[in-house]
Design brief:
about 170 residues; mainly alpha; 2 strands; about 5% strand; extended
Length: about 170
């Protein structure tokens, strides 16, 4: 009986060598959410008013309602004039509030408010939404420290425009 070679053939060894896949050098990770939105920290440091904070809190809740969540009291709250219960659609009311708020903000400001307050991303992730990028050799911690004030200023402006507290300067 002939003795067989159990190892891989020359063709199989070359084929395996060709198919070695290197992992990508820079892998993108998803932004990390915090437990507290930036609007809570801004109101504690007196950067925004209570009214602006209430607007952002409602904006966060109404975005959840539009997406299908049902936080709060049951949908039958108020009495109708004939003694029956009036049932209203919270999603429609939330969508109206979101639409009116979004009309006051630009697309970039809307993205900033959603990233900073609704999704509660870290300062460095909000900075990237704002268009601020880290240096080539800069760590995210150093980047966050460097741009912290600039990001907070942009978030405060976006909240002000969205809530209607600040008016844009009209040209002319």
């Amino acid at each position: 009986m002939e003795q067989s070679n159990i190892g891989p053939s020359r063709e199989a060894a070359l084929h395996a060598h060709i198919e070695v896949i290197q992992p990508p050098r820079n892998t993108a990770i998803l932004p990390v959410s915090r437990r507290v939105g930036m609007h809570d920290r801004l109101v504690k440091s007196d950067k925004i008013t209570i009214e602006e904070w209430q607007w952002v809190s409602r904006y966060c809740l109404d975005l959840e309602r539009v997406q299908g969540a049902k936080p709060g009291k049951p949908e039958f709250e108020s009495e109708h004039s004939d003694g029956g219960l009036q049932i209203y659609d919270r999603r429609a009311m939330a969508a109206t509030f979101i639409r009116l708020s979004d009309a006051r903000m630009s697309k970039k400001e809307r993205e900033i408010v959603i990233s900073a307050c609704v999704q509660a991303h870290r300062v460095c992730d909000v900075a990237i939404v704002c268009g601020l990028l880290p240096g080539d050799d800069e760590t995210m911690e150093a980047f966050s420290r460097r741009i912290d004030a600039a990001v907070k200023k942009r978030v405060v402006l976006a909240i002000g425009y969205g809530s209607g507290a600040k008016k844009r300067n009209s040209p002319g």
